[in-house]
Amino acid sequence: MARERIERLKRSKNAIILAHNYQRPEIQDIADFVGDSLELARRAVETDAEIIVFCGVDFMAETAAILNPDKKVLIPDLGAICPMAQMLTVEELEEAKEKNPDAEVVLYINTLADCKALADCICTSANAPKVVETMDSDTIIFGPDHNLARYVEKRTSKRIIPIPEYGLCPTHHQIAVEDLWEGKKNHPAAEIVVHPECIPEVQEIADHIASTSGMVRYCKEARGKEFLIGTEVGLLYRLQKETKTQGKKFYPLSESAVCPQMKMHTLTKVEKALEFEKPVVLVQRELAKEAWRAIERMLRIS
Ligand code: 13P
Ligand code: SF4
């Protein structure tokens, strides 16, 4: 069975599997750690393994490679490309910096290394307001997620300049206010828990807004028994698995909130990646050095 072969390969090659909360159930089950972007970056720093198999999207695997220049980081399917990270270009970022010379740049971790290399600091959905508030400048260039930018602006004293003008996650964009009304009609006792990549109108109605792992923590600790979940549907597997004994119920706000790129990794691809030790995630050395500075600053802050 693929699962057993993966376990054997992992042991013989001193490898670990890190998986994002949106991964397929079978990938979550074989992973050594499942978490949100911030937790995965931390785990990548802490591990003694020589090989990291990263089951997430490109910018996450790239971050792990930047933090571990001496380790081999593998991504089972190179097609796992986050469309939001593609929305910000170096040219756009350079132009915004030129136009706003006094502003500092905080970029969402959902960016590629060439943009990260130009940032003062990186943030994730778990720490964005905290990171932005600690910056020296009163004005912050923030990208690429316009919805996260609005979330940050409401929770900090800073003026936020979003770049690009309307960067978004196509998956979270599927979740509409109408889904919340429909969900509440069908499950009136359920609390609404959403991700800050959702549109502001959805965030305003929600009972709680958090990163994916923050959503898991909230639901586990809450007294309530029913939850309407506003993020990629893959999180429901982890929620159900970790609250089995609590008898809690979770409903997706939108069944169509699926991130196809996150679903590209399969057990067969993980096994192949481990066996042949490829595809390797490579980041150009100079870019990696600059991007490391901005990621490391975030890890120190949060
Ligand atoms: P988290 O950091 O909250 O896991 O979010 C990552 C992401 O890509 C959400 O779409
Ligand atoms: Fe990117 Fe959205 Fe998929 Fe997250 S859910 S990886 S932001 S496209």
Task: Characterize the structure shown.
- The protein has helices at 2-13, 25-30, 37-46, 58-67, 90-99, 113-116, 128-133, 146-155, 177-186, 200-205, 212-221, 235-242, 267-276, 285-301, and strands spanning 15-20, 33-35, 51-55, 72-74, 104-108, 121-123, 139-143, 159-162, 191-194, 208-209, 226-230, 249-252.
- The protein is an alpha/beta fold and 302 residues long.
- The protein folds into three domains: 2-81 and 262-283, Rossmann fold; 84-169 and 291-301, 3-Layer(aba) Sandwich (Rossmann fold), CATH 3.40.50.10800; 175-252, Rossmann fold (3-Layer(aba) Sandwich).
- Strands 2-1-3-4 form a four-stranded parallel β-sheet, sandwiched between helices. Strands 6-5-7-8 form a four-stranded parallel β-sheet.
- β3, α4 (58-67) and β4 form a beta-alpha-beta unit.
- The mean pLDDT is 97.
- 1,3-dihydroxyacetonephosphate binds at residues 21, 36-37, 110, 124-125, 169, 195, 197, 211-212.
